[in-house]
Amino acid sequence: MGKLDILLFALGSFVLASAKLPKFIEPCSKSAADFQKCCTEHGNKALPTLLPGVKELNIPKLNPYYLDKVVADAGPNLKITLTNIELQGVDTLKVTDMDVDFDKKTVYIALHAERVMVIGTYDIDGKILVLPIRGNGPINVTIVDGQFKYRFSYKLEKKAGEDYAVIQDNDSLELKITKSYFKLDNLFNGNKLMGDNVNKFLNENDQDIIKEIGATIKAVISSITRTTGGGVLSAIPFNELFLP
Ligand SMILES: *[C@@H]1O[C@H](CO)[C@@H](O)[C@H](O)[C@H]1NC(C)=O
Ligand SMILES: *[C@@H]1O[C@H](CO)[C@@H](O)[C@H](O)[C@H]1NC(C)=O
């Protein structure tokens, strides 16, 4: 190849690459000293475009975010099922840190949420801390000032000669929430006295309750992250998301 051929070839692959990459995804340089900071900034800049949903990437509307069902393993003494879930306040999320370890194939995303409401229908049976709890009906869990540290492993799979990242099942979530409010209507078949007492107990012990139902919260957060992250990762070859 002559010099011009190489230049045209290079231009050609550049055009091809930039045609696949949506404008709102600005790649960061893997080798740059500020890679982590760059990912965090670009992640935040991409959020407003992601919120209404992105059809080409199979990303649904994120605010509000709808989820049919979450069945969470909250330990041997408690069964929680949430259905027809509407998550409000996803637009209060900010990326506070983001990093990729290309050797270990892990992605780390830290998020801050000012105020997120989980509205839906619950079915609960068992014991929470020491208290018996049973019932089904409308639920409203509101979390204020939440920090989430989400980690997932990915593996690379070839599609049409290109490597795409696939999120593995063993994702993890650490969370710290300043204050949570719980409102479960119709507990104990609508027994008002018992229902009021349990709701009062939940709200007075919100930090311990959040620990107990951590698996449920993780399932909800993980669903959002998986549909959003998974949408991007399954549509765009992994190499095109980063600069050398
Ligand atoms: C959910 O609870 C929060 C906090 O108590 C309240 O501000 C909000 O209006 C409630 N949302 C709905 C849909 O009931
Ligand atoms: C997840 O599982 C993969 C193997 O499938 C392993 O390589 C990776 O270290 C695990 N990640 C975490 C965060 O435990």
TrEMBL record:
Signal peptide bounds: 1-19
GO terms under cellular component: extracellular space
A GO biological process held by the record: circadian rhythm
Swiss-Prot/TrEMBL keywords: Biological rhythms, Signal
SMART domains in alphabetical order: JHBP
Top-level division of the source organism's lineage: Eukaryota
Cited InterPro entries: Haemolymph_juvenile_hormone-bd, To_sf
Family: Belongs to the TO family.
Protein's UniProt name: Uncharacterized protein
Organism: Ceutorhynchus assimilis
